[in-house]
Amino acid sequence: MRTEAVLAGLDPDQRTAVTAPAGPVCILAGAGTGKTRAITHRIAYRTLSGEINPRHVLAVTFTARAAAEMRARLTALGAGGVQARTFHAAALRQVRYFAARLLEGRGMPELMESKVRVVGLAAARAGVRADRAIARDLASEIEWAKSSLVEPSEYAVAAAKALREPPFEADRVAEVFAAYESLKRRQGVIDFEDLLRAAVWGIEEHPDVGDQIRAQYRHFVVDEYQDVNPLQQRLLEAWLGGRDDLTVVGDASQTIYSFTGASSSHLIEFPRKWRGATVVRLVRDYRSTPQVVGLANAVIRQARGTEAKLRLELEGQRPPGPEPELKIFPDEPGEAGAVARRCRELIAAGTPASEIAVLFRTNAQSEAYEEALAEAQVPYVVRGADRFFERAEVRQAMVALRAAVRSIPGETPLVDAVVEGLARAGWSRSQPPTGGAAREQWEALAALVTLAEEYAAEPEVLPIGEGGRVQREVTLSAFNDELLRRAEQQHAPTVAGVTLASLHSAKGLEWDAVFLVGLADGTLPTTYAKSSEQLEEERRLLYVGVTRARRLLWLSFGQSRAPGGRARRPCRFLPQLERSGASYSRPSAEPSRKPDRRPPKVSSCRICGSTLLAGADRKLGRCPTCPSDMDEDLFERLQTWRATTAAELKVPAYVVFTDATLVAVAERRPTDPAQLLAIAGIGPRKLGQYGDAVFALVGGASPDDLGRKNFEN
């Protein structure tokens, strides 16, 4: 394939990235802007032009799927032979190749697939009691430390600086860390961080190995550079060996893995570290409609902190689509039911189930949506986690609740009985534990308590015999039967269906229709986000969720978790909500499974594109902070006409049109019925009453020219 063909179809910014000269190149690529296209075409362009040899290129990314896609695209472009691998796969290949030389004839140690078993043994050796969830959290802390180049003796100080929330006191975690390292050496095994360290050590401490690797790989491309951790950056620098033929691509606004040690600082500091680097910004979004793009821009426009320095303002390139919709429900079960009904409608209208996703902040939220989709007979798949009732802690809790029936008095209120039964299994309703896995386990059992609250709040009347009816029992035994029913209903064979996934699991994916659910403060952002940096990462999570949608985007939250529960505030990152003046208290008379009320659709500022939810802002069609283009003379004539009309009808002036409506008319200057009806608050009735007068005034008529008119209905 000729180089002209490689350049064909690229937009100007992509072409600049592809044809940039050799040396450091930083491609800042927003969501949906074609970053993979840019870097694969850059590699192909350079190889096909003869500038570089494809065998001398190493392209690294973070998932095997992304690496395989990159290889496939390069082959299609005629640039076969390029090595496209994950950091770990590239390191494994090199360490395995040089093992005999590095290890003095010994074979390469066995690579552990998981740390959890050895961490559990190390915890016991350090005198720390750790079940599987705690062991997972300890493993995560050790992984973070090793990825951050932190040794066991340095852990306590480093963890404090990084505001980590380990499952135990930092000194105890350091003891487990040290015991883990000792056990690994004794067992002759290594973990994935050891693999990267071995690759770095082999290059830095063995000049012959370093020379051979650097002779093989001379040109480097790094995808998702905002997710690189210090250990991976150290390996990259070892590969480079002081050379500068490096292309990186990333988006600081999609930095959502800092809890694992990933740092966008390498992307942010790239131009300063590499003087004279070419920096290209890709902002044309080919994935999402302008309406979705407008909301994404509005979400990230309010971002603060270091990542915001590289914030990109996306430009939607697709044809217009429907506005994103904000839905507010009395509670989470009602929200889940409405989502399931809408998914069923979309599928019936022709949208493939596989092109629909329901995204939430934590995996514990999945149960309500699994239940609602199952009831609606909508197929679904859970991505990145087990189905709710397949999780080990949920299965164990259900066993504990069945056993508790024999020992908890039958007259005990259901919710109290469930809490007591779970307490006997080691769960406490008080402050959830620190550590991600233990906290997720706690939240899953807390979801069972929420189910009990919902079950107790809605006792059904069940049919019996011919015309007979009986009140459903609200007992622990009956609730256990309900849990079994739900589990059986949700254990249908997995087929292609609606995707249920956490926002973290959704990174890198896209769908035609996306439902962002549970958008309430305390869930997103999570209550565990305390620092400004943590809160900003929560904002970026919402941004990532929004940018997964190609065309249809639904945003929703339940005002309480369960019917009758405590009211919650909407997610603070939803643009313009703080100006809406809406009440978010739960309507007391509205049952949870009723169809949703119809809150206003999300609309965009006609000046800056920011999403508008406040009634006055939607009427004006702009943010209150954006400059007004009001025709002052027209506004005065409208005021005079309104006063005369109100006097003739013997009604207050605002009954004719409010001040905000007059301002909107004076700014938008409508000349036909469609334009006048587009102003919020003006419907067919007022169009019929006052339309001719408004059009005449917009056309330049004075109030006196209109004469006396009968404005009666």
From TrEMBL:
Domain UvrD-like helicase ATP-binding span(s) in chain numbering: 8-289
Keywords: ATP-binding, Helicase, Hydrolase, Isomerase, Nucleotide-binding
Class of this enzyme: isomerase
CDD domains referenced in this protein's UniProt entry, alphabetically: DEXQc_UvrD (cd17932), SF1_C_UvrD (cd18807)
Domain of life: Bacteria
UniProt region (Disordered), positions on chain: 581-603
Domain HRDC intervals: 628-708
Residues holding ATP: 29-36
Database matches in SMART domains: HRDC
Example GO BP: recombinational repair
Catalytic activity reported: ATP + H2O = ADP + phosphate + H(+); Couples ATP hydrolysis with the unwinding of duplex DNA by translocating in the 3'-5' direction
Segments forming domain UvrD-like helicase C-terminal: 290-551
Full protein name: DNA 3'-5' helicase
Organism whose genome encodes this protein: Actinoplanes cyaneus
